[in-house]
Amino acid sequence: MIGTTLEDIRDHIGRLASGDGEYRLVCARYGDRPVPAAGLRFPDRSTARVAARATEQYRAALRRYDPELPRYDVIVCQLYDESARTTVEEPKRSDPASVFVSDDERESELDDESERGDGDERDGGDDREWALTEPVVNGSAKRNERRRRLVEFCHRIAAVVFESLSASGKRRVEEAVMDRYFALAERVGDPDDLCLRLLEGMAAELADRLSPDEQASILADAAGRLDAPTPAAAEPVTATLDELRGCGIVDDFDRREPPDFDGDGRRTTDIRLTGYALSPRCGSLPVLPIVVDLLGRASKRRPTGTRVEPTDDGWRVRIAFDDESGSDDESSEEHRSDDENRSDDENRRRVDPDGLVVAPIRSAGSSASSES
C-alpha cells in the first residue's frame, strides 16, 4: 500500500539528514518546509538534492490519496554566517535577484531540476539565518498563509495516520478511508474544504472499524511520526490549541484552570472552542487532529479520551489524561486510593481509551450536573 511507500521514503530522508548540516529544503515560493524533510538538515548540497528528489517521491505518493494536494517548488538553501553580514542597500522592486545569493549559486540551483519538488510545511525556527537560493514571492504568501497552513496541517496529520495504518497492517481501514475520500472528492470542489472532509472521513472510519485500544495504538504511533515540537512549545495543550488556531482549525479557544478530575478519577482539562472547522457526525465530533497533535507534544500526561458538549458559540471539550505527572496534591492521593479499592476489571474499564478519534456529544449542562 501507499503508506508503506511513505514510511520507507521518510526513513530514507531521515538517514540522509545530519544534525549539524548546513543545508535544508524550503519552498521557493512561500518559504515553507516540505514534508517529510521539515526540520531536517543535510551535510552538503548533493545530499540535499537527493533528499529533494525523495521528498518529491513522497509527495507524489501522498497525492495518490489526495489529488488536490498543493504543489510547491522546493529548493536547497544554505546556512550563512550572520556575523559576516554587512549593511547593504535595500533592493529595488525591479531587481529581485539582488536580495539573494551569488549568480554562481543561483545558476547552480537552476541547472539542477532535481532540486525542485513539492513542499508543504512551515517551520518558523531560524529562518533569518538561512539564505534562499531562488526568489521568494512574499506578497501572496502573507495573504494566504492561514489557508496554506490549514492544508499543510490536515495533510500532515493524514499522512502520519496513513503511515501508521499501513505499518500496522490495517489495510482494510486504509482502503475504506480512501473510498470515502474519493466519494467526497467528487462532491467537494474547494481544496481547503476537501482536506477537512478527509480528516472527518478518516476519523469516522477509525471509529467504526477499530476497537478503542486499536485506535489508541494507531494514534500513538502516528503521533510519533510527527516532527518533534520546538522546545519553546513546552505546555502541550496550549501549544496544540495555538497550532489549531494558527492554521484555522479553530477560530479561538480558552482553557479552564486548574485541571480537574472526572467521575472515573482521571485528570482532565476543559477547553472551549469557537469556530471549529470539523463537523459532527452521528452524535459525535471528530477530534482526531486535536488528539494526534497533542499526543505528539505530550511526553508525560497523554490524552486517554475526550467528551464534548455544545455551547452557544462552539464546543466545550473535556480531555482526560493518564496521570503520570507524579502530582502530590491531595486530590491525586485520594484518587490513587480509589484505584486501589477498585477491582482489576473496574480499573481496566476505567483506563480504556474513549473518544480519541470522535468524541461523544453530550447535551449541554450534562457534565455539570453529573459532577455536582
From TrEMBL:
Domain of life: Archaea
Sequence ranges of Low complexity compositional bias: 363-372
Ranges of Acidic residues composition bias in the record: 102-124, 322-332
Region listing for Disordered, in residue ranges: 85-136, 321-372
InterPro entries listed in its UniProt record: DUF7551 (IPR055973), DUF7552 (IPR055974)
Sequence ranges assigned to domain DUF7552 in this UniProt record: 5-78
Residues of the DUF7551 domain: 150-328
Compositionally biased region (Basic and acidic residues): 85-95, 333-353
Protein known as: Uncharacterized protein
